[in-house]
Fold this protein.
Amino acid sequence: MRTLLRNLGLSAASLALLGMTTPAPSPTEVIHGLGFDACAAPPVKVMRAWYGTSPYRAVGIYVSGSQRHCAQPELTPEWVRQVRAMGWRLIPAHVGMQAPCNDYPHKTERFEPARALDQGRTQAREAVRALTALGIGEDSPVYLDIESYAVKDPAPECGRAVVDAVVGWTRELKASGYRAGFYSSLGSGVRDLAEAARAGRSPLPEALWYARWDQRETTADQGPLTAGLWPKDARIHQFAGNVKETWGGETLTIDRNRLDGPAAR
């Protein structure tokens, strides 16, 4: 009803007179500190063991996508509810179609340069369905996971296709009430997106999650990620990968992340 009245041209003041006040949207939650991601969402008992004993307070979760490497038997609305109640913050990611020049043998679904914009929108719709099903609310970010691809592209359309897909992804998420994020390696996907940003391409994601396993716990400018590109509160740095850690008696193989960026609401 409220949406209908807005569409009829009634202002917030008019809605208030009708007893239908419109609360201001909650701001996106920004996390500063350490987080981790694992191939599969860990069991609740592991998340409980790690909270308070490990240095981590946020966890990356692979909510959707046809090319997720691991099954997600633990990832349910109840899992989301329980780990959030413990105090964990969630960083959702979608692993679907990849760059045209991607050569991972287990990731064969790739964007087509002529259709990448629309394919990016399709990927976003799939992610929104998954977020909604998990109870992850609007205004939350979700990161499009594009694995690394050749720095010297076999054809220039590879990087352009990635950027086109990201633009479609961003447009669709904005239209759906979610925030767009992008994950890739600093030397490939992030490089191409940074070049697109400098060229004025839009819309582009609000937040960037970049992989460079340099063991540096920082989101400071480096490589193609220069000053003014996704500045304060818009970056996550995956600085180490495939490391085994034990906290509270429970062991996981994880990637380590420094967070200065948004988490799910």
About this structure: Residues 113 and 157 are 6 Å apart (CA to CA). The chain is about 30% helix and 25% strand.
